[in-house]
Amino acid sequence: xxxxxxxxxxxxxxxxxxxxxxxxxxxxxxxxxxxxxxxxxxxxxxxxxxxxxxxxxxxxxxxxxxxxxxxxxxxxxxxxxxxxxxxxxxxxxxxxxxxxxxxxxxxxxxxxxxxxxxxxxxxxxxxxxxxxxxxxxxxxxxxxxxxxxxxxxxxxxxxxxxxxxxxxxxxxxxxxxxxxxxxxxxxxxxxxxxxxxxxxxxxxxxxxxxxxxxxxxxxxxxxxxxxxxxxxxxxxxxxxxxxxxxxxxxxxxxxxxxxxxxxxxxxxxxxxxxxxxxxxxxxxxxxxxxxxxxxxxxxxxxxxxxxxxxxxxxxxxxxxxxxxxxxxxxxxxxxxxxxxxxxxxxxxxxxxxxxxxxxxxxxxxxxxxxxxxxxxxxxxxxxxxxxxxxxxxxxxxxxxxxxxxxxxxxxxxxxxxxxxxxxxxxxxxxxxxxxxxxxxxxxxxxxxxxxxxxxxxxxxxxxxxxxxxxxxxxxxxxxxxxxxxxxxxxxxxxxxxxxxxxxxxxxxxxxxxxxxxxxxxxxxxxxxxxxxxxxxxx
Length: 538
Fold this sequence. Notes:
- By secondary structure, this protein is an alpha+beta fold.
- The protein has helices at 2-10, 108-142, 153-168, 179-189, 195-207, 219-229, 262-265, 287-294, 356-369, 387-397, 441-451, 514-522, 532-536, and strands spanning 33-36, 48-53, 59-66, 72-73, 79-82, 98-100, 215-217, 232-235, 238-242, 252-257, 273-277, 280-281, 301-308, 311-318, 320-323, 327-333, 343-349, 375-378, 401-408, 411-418, 430-434, 456-459, 467-473, 479-488.
- Helices cover 29% and strands 25% of the residues.
């Protein structure tokens, strides 16, 4: 350093005198220390020489002359450039000094002492900065998405599922647990040596959320779910629901069998009761669980125990791709009226796939061509499907009004309503039939029609699935169904675990198929008889 050289040069004199001024300190992204030395008109008695290296690698020549008259002569004006920096990846500390030498008497040893103190203090501050940087880097590494150890392919698949939940799941408290800590513990402690072990680890992770609708889908189930929403399903062709009769065997009732499907060819008909699926009793089995068990890869088999009347059958069915028509309709004629008012259009909607809204419109047009002037929409045992289809079908019946509020942890984030542009049946009397198998998109539709006073609801409280799921595909072809939001009806009712409450009950023995429904109107003596006035008046 130039300062060190001047000090050494001055040390040969018993009382050397120097002068300096204009010391400037600044913090910059890069640093340069510049020394300007001015020659004095003093006699030359001795001469010293030193060389320093600048940041450009070239030597800087310093010469001084010290004599008995305690003077200093520098024969040329030199500029000394030096950079002092500390690079730590996050900070750069730099200083700049400008010295001009003139005739001011200052003891240079004080300068040297001051510089030594500065160096000591700077070293301490630099050490503190480095310690802080290391601490920050250490803490931040704890919160990185990937742990510091080597990750296997199975670990990466688990992390992909973890990140999907982290970004999309509605509950950012993750059921009261540290989601980051769970990830680290799982990667350390859960076996993930095979794909099956990884799937088990993912399922175990999802179970901690205590949300039955956020679930893992193996590749075949993910494909089956996608095909089901597109209007085709790999299964046995059954639409199932809960039993309504208090007597008889416990189990799930067959609502309908797809024409030409494996179940229909085996002789299963509407009203039959499924007692077991693959030797697992359906007594306490939900329709979601049963539907997943009935679906599977094309060509695989499933064993059913079915009660048809007094007889019990054990059937071995082979799954195949079955086309699903989500809508069935027919005309019910009331006896004795002799005019068009006796005709009621019955529409059974079994699912909300991509064909649902179009099929409902076609059914309405077909029934109108037969001069019906009232409708019954049967949503019993409709477990839902595509959320947008539920909204579109609501628009068919509503000329205006809110359909549903979409909410997250912060409150309402979106509103779906009807502006009348898609409405084709806003004036005819409408009754809607629901039960505990009415869920998800079906509840959105039923709640919208009830709260807007467009329809009268009959039946029992619905399932109470007030949450919305989105499906995410993982890199190996598997997938996740993740709860991303909840919804409220137009009256701001959160129906989760409560359901939509109907306006009136239905008889316990009220049939679930179109033919049985019409018979209740046509036979006044039947136990399920409901007349037109009861059906459409509030």
